[in-house]
Design brief:
With 304 residues, the chain is mostly helical. The protein has 14 helices and 2 strands, in the order H-H-H-H-H-H-H-H-E-E-H-H-H-H-H-H. Helix 6 runs antiparallel to helix 14.
Length: 304
């Protein structure tokens, strides 16, 4: 049990480190180009492994093409491109904390798409979670203050929220592909990675004039590290841990990421961690606990 808990901590410490790597990689390459190369490499490696291991069972079905298109755009392309773009302007700890609101976006989208109903306790949890973001959103960097925005929301924060909502919708699409269409998760991940990488690289050729901004060898080094940690180590470790722990526990454990991200941001980039971060972190966590507690109670009742 102790070893498994340590592995959970390692998982989210590594996830948090990918934000630091993202902050570094945009110093060497444009966001679309970086996402394109990363996803093509990661997707190709994963797909190659699948073809060798699973052979005939690893091919996507033609009738699921529209679901795959949605997965490619909303699960990989938009979230990762937006996150890299935003990391040029906002601190890593803020980006990580904004990403932690994904469970709330998923719940709201499920309400409209699947007509899921909330209890009053869940509704209160959702409101607490969203209002908990106000302190961190009010603490703006000089780059954010210099850009456009709506009220205390900068354009970077607004676009980051779009990325989080996109990722949440991508999770719903992934669930549909895996459960309804019986598609293996590793197949969905590899195909969406590879195709989103091709899309990002194609758009980079159109919209980004200078793909590499710094030393190309530094870019390759950071890219290899990012693919190894995120696309290979974290993906496999998370899949293994989900066999042992519930999704509710993993949702709570994911809040370790913003804490680790803050530590890395302080050590690597000199980012200051103000009271705004800890206030938002505590309030959002309370909202998530309230929502997930009620959700887990309903699941246990149904199971019994």
């Amino acid at each position: 049990l102790v070893i498994m808990i340590i592995l959970v901590v390692i998982l989210y410490a590594l996830f948090a480190f990918t934000f630091s790597l993202g902050k570094v990689i945009v110093n060497f390459a444009e966001p679309l180009f970086a996402v394109g190369v990363r996803m093509i490499v990661g997707g190709a490696v994963l797909l190659g492994y699948i073809i060798i291991k699973h052979r005939k069972s690893c091919y996507p079905k033609v009738q699921h093409w529209f679901t795959y298109v949605q997965l490619i755009i909303f699960s990989i392309f938009l979230p990762y491109t937006i996150r890299l773009w935003a990391l040029q302007y906002i601190p890593t700890n803020k980006a990580s904390l904004l990403l932690s609101t994904a469970p709330f976006f998923t719940a709201i989208l499920s309400y409209f798409i699947h007509k899921e109903r909330f209890t009053w306790l869940q509704i209160i949890g959702l409101f607490i979670g969203f209002f908990g973001m106000i302190p961190i959103l009010m603490n703006e960097t000089p780059l954010e203050k210099a850009s456009y925005g709506i009220g205390f929301l900068s354009i970077e924060e607004l676009i980051m929220f779009i990325g989080v909502a996109s990722m949440s919708y991508g999770l719903i699409i992934m669930q549909k592909l895996v459960k309804t269409h019986a598609c293996p998760p590793y197949l969905a991940n590899s195909v969406s990675m590879l195709c989103s990488g091709i899309l990002a690289l194609g758009l980079s050729g159109i919209f980004e004039k200078e793909h590499i901004k710094g030393d190309i060898y530094s870019f390759i080094g950071v890219l290899i590290l990012q693919v190894s940690i995120s696309n290979i180590i974290c993906a496999n470790l998370q899949a293994s841990l989900l066999k042992k722990y519930s999704t509710t526990f993993m949702a709570f454990a994911s809040f370790l990421s913003p804490l680790f991200t803050s530590l890395y941001g302080f050590l690597l980039f000199g980012e200051t961690v103000t009271w705004h971060f800890f206030a938002s972190f505590t309030i959002v966590l309370c909202g998530l606990v309230l929502y997930q507690y009620n959700d887990s109670k309903n699941y246990t009742a149904l199971k019994n």
